[in-house]
Design brief:
Layout (H helix, E strand, L loop, with lengths): L1 H7 L3 H21 L2 H4 L4 H11 L4 H8 L3 H11 L5 H19 L3 H33 L4 H54 L7
Helix pairs in contact: 1-9, 2-8, 2-9, 5-6, 6-7, 6-9, 7-9, 8-9
């Protein structure tokens, strides 16, 4: 493995750094996007129980807010419970945009890695071919060993760049779709809470 890295030249190191960073971001986001962490099932029933008992004080709302991303949205709605349904929904929507923005953290970096990895590989290819033509100019085509070094560097960096870019792009697309799913689930829960608390929907 080290021989391949060495044969690929200096550009192998930023490609390897991209692969490590992409893996770290992917694993961290997969952990962060667990449904029970983002959209816990017990939260709405807990809010309804507290509401019926008249125990939705500021301390309880703050605890709900800090419990999860969904809790942030629902707590914003509860803080505006004395306002109309429309005001509650607007407050939740504004908070929801911030919550989703927080969930999208590092996804831009992941997309950037997916985009630049093949470009780094292409740059390695160009540098390798420049070495080949430089060797041809200096020594002619009579020494295959001299030419093989440049060609090898060109092919290795291209392969390495694509090897990093392809799974990173797949991970980026999957995680982006996961954020969309979680955003829809949180929106459904928030609308359900608003309608139940305003008496427009029966508690399930």
């Amino acid at each position: 493995m080290f021989e391949l890295i060495k044969a690929g030249g200096l550009l192998m190191w930023p490609i390897i750094a991209c692969s490590v960073l992409a893996m770290a971001i992917t694993l961290e986001r997969l952990w962060a996007y667990r449904r029970r962490r983002v959209v816990p099932d017990h939260l709405l029933p807990q809010i309804w129980k507290l509401y019926k008992k008249g125990e939705l004080d500021r301390q309880r709302i703050l605890a709900i807010r800090e419990s999860s991303p969904l809790g942030r949205m629902l707590a914003t709605g509860l803080a505006n419970l004395h306002h109309s349904r429309e005001v509650m929904k607007e407050a939740i929507e504004e908070e929801g945009r911030q919550v989703v923005h927080g969930l999208e953290r590092y996804l831009n970096a992941l997309g950037t890695i997916a985009a630049i990895s093949p470009l780094l590989g292409l740059l390695g290819t160009v540098i390798g071919m420049i070495k080949v033509f430089t060797a041809i100019t200096a020594a002619g085509v009579g020494n295959p060993a001299v030419l093989a070094g440049g060609i090898s560097e060109a092919l290795i960096t291209t392969a390495a760049g694509l090897t990093v870019a392809i799974p990173t792009l797949i991970a980026h697309r999957y995680l982006t779709g996961r954020v969309d799913e979680l955003a829809i689930a949180m929106e459904e829960q928030a609308i359900k809470m608003v309608e139940v608390l305003h008496g427009e929907r029966e508690q399930e």
